[in-house]
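sry for the spam today, last one i promise. struct tokens for design, 392 residues
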């Protein structure tokens, strides 16, 4: 990767996942920023990383850093991405890119002005069989896409005692399931099909209106194994559940179900594409199998095997057939795409990874979905929609 160096801000579930993928790729991680200097120091020591930063200002001022990974709670994505770009750093930002489309649009414009590489961590695109599915759609193998449906269901916020910063709108933003897991699905739907959403109608529900918030912070998913402790009762303002209908430009339709309170569903992200000639379906909990459905011949189950994949996406599968690839590998492949693009240096080339434009598109969709919930009607999606428009 041509000596490119990274720094990672935010040391929860995601920060550690980014560090692990970067190290597997051979990118040197020169420093870490935790929510406190003590946490940064402890993580740097345990991972053998030379430096920890006192604050984000120190991180972006570090001349040895080429790429800044932002893995902090959502409300910090915008100010941190802005500061990093202003200091001449390339950025890989966790999703959602911001907490409003006004912020994400500003980041898109800043990335364009600086010419720096600005990526959003929509890592699920990099499952080998999702890449394969997209290649098949692009090659016309399922015909015209008529319909895409699926969902993202989890159970880590199932109990009223489950807590995480995502439940606090001041930290996570005003949408929860939709921004946290829904934008993964929507990004996948747009990327797989190449379609754009013309209009949405949605319904939200909060089934657990009051939760017990522990005095100590709880890392993502960690509440499933930690004992309940001293806690205060708080009202929940964000959605546990969302159902969204999508009308795409050109006439295709979509249906999406989201929930973070579906007992037994751990990280059940799945999609199905129904085309005019065939169907494709994939489930993150069985990521090495792609179902191909036909009307006039037996269905097929493609087991991940680079030898059986489209030549263009074959290099993005890291292991031979029969060697399962999973969640951590998607981060590796995403960073390989970003870092090799930076190392190549020709930034006029199309970017083979999710960019700030993709992150902005998701913020626009979140706002249209939110507007539809509040006004109980179909809402047209306008790509440059600003937060102001979302509230009329
Ligand atoms: C929590 O819902 C979460 O960690 C998401 O934030 C991630 O994006 C997803 O990959 C797993 O679940």
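last one done:
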């Amino acid at each position: 990767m041509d000596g490119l160096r990274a720094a990672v801000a935010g040391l929860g579930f995601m920060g550690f996942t980014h560090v692990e993928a970067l190290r597997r790729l051979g990118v040197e991680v020169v420093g870490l920023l935790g929510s406190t200097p003590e946490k940064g120091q402890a993580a740097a020591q345990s991972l053998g990383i030379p430096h920890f930063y006192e604050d984000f200002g120190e991180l972006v001022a570090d001349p040895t850093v080429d790429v800044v990974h932002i893995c902090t709670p959502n409300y910090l994505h915008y100010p941190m991405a802005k500061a990093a770009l202003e200091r001449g750093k390339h950025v890989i930002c966790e999703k959602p890119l911001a907490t409003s489309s006004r912020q994400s649009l500003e980041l898109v414009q800043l990335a364009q002005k600086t010419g720096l590489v600005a990526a959003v961590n929509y890592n699920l695109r990099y499952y080998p069989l999702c890449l394969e599915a997209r290649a098949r759609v692009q090659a016309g193998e399922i015909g015209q896409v008529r319909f895409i449906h699926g969902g993202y269901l989890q159970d880590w916020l199932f109990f009223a005692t489950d807590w995480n910063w995502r439940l606090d709108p001041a930290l996570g933003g005003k949408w929860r399931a939709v921004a946290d897991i829904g934008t993964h699905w929507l990004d996948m739907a747009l990327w797989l099909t190449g379609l754009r959403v013309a209009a949405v109608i949605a319904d939200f529900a909060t089934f657990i209106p009051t939760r017990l918030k522990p005095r100590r912070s709880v890392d993502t998913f960690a509440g499933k194994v930690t004992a309940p402790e001293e806690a205060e009762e708080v009202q929940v303002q964000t959605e546990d559940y969302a159902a969204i209908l999508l009308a795409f430009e050109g006439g295709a339709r979509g249906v999406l179900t989201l929930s973070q309170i579906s007992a037994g569903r751990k990280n059940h992200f799945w999609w199905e594409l129904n085309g005019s000639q065939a169907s494709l379906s994939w489930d993150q909990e069985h990521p090495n199998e792609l179902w191909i459905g036909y009307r006039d011949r037996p269905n097929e189950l493609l087991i991940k095997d680079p030898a059986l994949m489209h030549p263009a996406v074959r290099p993005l599968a890291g292991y031979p057939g029969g060697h399962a690839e999973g969640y951590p590998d998607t981060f590796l492949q995403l960073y390989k795409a970003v870092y090799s693009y930076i190392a190549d240096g020709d930034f006029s080339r199309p970017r083979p990874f999710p960019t700030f434009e993709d992150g902005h598109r998701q913020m626009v969709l979140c706002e249209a979905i939110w507007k539809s919930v509040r006004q109980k009607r179909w809402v047209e999606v306008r790509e440059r929609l600003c937060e102001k428009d979302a509230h009329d």
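The longest strand covers residues 145-153. ok im logging off now
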